[in-house]
Amino acid sequence: MKKVSATDALELSISERIQLVEDIWDTIAAKADSLELTEEEKKVIDARLEKYHQNPELGSPWEDVYKRIVSRQ
Fold first, then answer.
1. ∠ CA 41-42-46 to the nearest 5 degrees?
2. pLDDT tens digits, residue range 30-62?
3. Is 72 a residue whose pLDDT tops 80?
4. Roughly how many angstroms between the first and final C-alpha of the chain, as a whole number?
5. Are 60 and 52 in contact (CB under 8 A)?
6. CA distance 68 to 60
7. Is the pLDDT assigned to residue 1 strictly greater than 80?
8. Cβ–Cβ under 8 Å, residues 48 and 40
9. Contact (CB, 8 A) for 18 and 9
10. pLDDT classification of 4: cutoffs 50, 70, 90
11. What sign does the CA torsion over 46, 65, 14, 18 have?
């Protein structure tokens, strides 16, 4: 397989770059189970989950979060 550099990728059309990114993502997603979280990442997730369990009403549904993000753009 030929290696593709970032410079090579910039020479592609936008649709070709999108396809390249999709192809790369597919290879990552196929092996997602093999990715290990660091201990620090696990601690952050556990702490956030604990805070959620203490006050579940303080969270926001994903749809609301997404709307806030999109409205800022």
1. 120
2. 988 888 899 999 999 999 999 999 998 888 899
3. yes
4. 39
5. no
6. 11
7. no
8. no
9. no
10. confident
11. positive
Phi, psi (deg, nearest 5) at residue 55: -140, 70
Question: What residue segments make up the domains of the chain, in order of their start?
Answer: 1-34, 36-73
- What per-residue confidence (pLDDT) applies to 26? 94
DSSP 15-58: HHHHHHHHHHHHHHHHTGGG----HHHHHHHHHHHHHHHH-GGG
**DSSP string of 50-64, one letter each residue:** HHHHH-GGGS--HHH
Cα–Cα distance, 1 to 4 (Å, whole number): 9
Q: Which residue has the tokens 């192809």?
A: 23
Fill in the amino acid letter for 42: K
Separation between Cα atoms, residue 10 and residue 16, nearest integer Å: 10
Task: Specify the pTM.
Answer: 0.48
